[in-house]
Design goal:
Belongs to the bacterial ribosomal protein bS21 family. One of its GO terms (molecular function) is structural constituent of ribosome. InterPro entries: Ribosomal_bS21, Ribosomal_bS21_sf. It comes from Chitinophaga niabensis. The chain is mainly alpha-helical and 64 residues long. It has one domain. Helices cover 67% and strands 0% of the residues. It is built from three helices and no strands. The N and C termini lie far apart (43 Å).
Amino acid sequence: MLIIDSKDCENIDKALKKYKKKFEKAKILLQLRERQSFTKPSIRRRTEVLKAVYKLQVASGKFE
């Protein structure tokens, strides 16, 4: 649960902006999307390895 401390004189737009930043930093939306479907650990590891290989290829200049 996210709690935003707001002062009485603070504008509602500023409080909303603080809430949005805090929500994004907490990565709540990513957790919800991740929990929607189960992925096997082996598949999760495979995707991480493929991402790492892709990043290395981009860094070396094979992909543009």
